[in-house]
Amino acid sequence: MHIKYFADTDTALVEFSDNPPVETRELDENIYLDLDANGRVVSITVEHARQTAGMNEFSYQLIPTLTPAP
User: Fold this and answer.
1) How many domains does the chain fold into?
2) pLDDT tens for residues 2-15?
3) Does pTM top 0.85 for this prediction?
4) With 90 as the cut, is the pLDDT of residue 52 above it?
5) Which H/E stretch holds residue 51?
6) Distance between CA atoms of 50 and 57, rounded to whole angstroms?
7) From 5, 24, 27, 70, which residue has the greatest number of CB atoms within 10 Å?
8) How many CA atoms lie within 13 A of 50 on its CB side?
9) Rounded CA gap, 14 and 3, in Å?
């Protein structure tokens, strides 16, 4: 997964796959979902990201898998 932020246009792009998108769905006036030929999500584009998605701060946290007790 890659997350790109374009400051000049205040646009965030979250890429989940390298598959080429074949369809874009508008979720609202600022959020677009790109799908591949199999209907899987390829990427999400968020316009006006600072207002829409709070891009002033971004963090990532990996939650480890819990091992079942014996």
Assistant:
1) 1
2) 999 999 999 999 99
3) no
4) no
5) helix 49-52
6) 9
7) 5
8) 6
9) 4
How confident is the model over 29-57, as a mean pLDDT?
Answer: 91
Whether 58 is in a domain gets the answer: no
At residue 70, the pLDDT reads 67
- Does any domain span residue 70? no
62 falls within a domain: no
pLDDT of residue 69: 65
Query: Which region holds residue 8: left if phi is over 0, alpha if psi is between -120 and 50, else beta?
Result: alpha
SS3 28: strand
Name which of 53, 7, 10, 8 is nearest 28 in CA terms: 53
- Burial group, residue 30, by CB count within 10 angstroms (0-12, 13-18, 19+): middle
In a domain, 42, yes or no: yes
Structure tokens at 19: 């598959």
Range of the domain at 6: 2-52
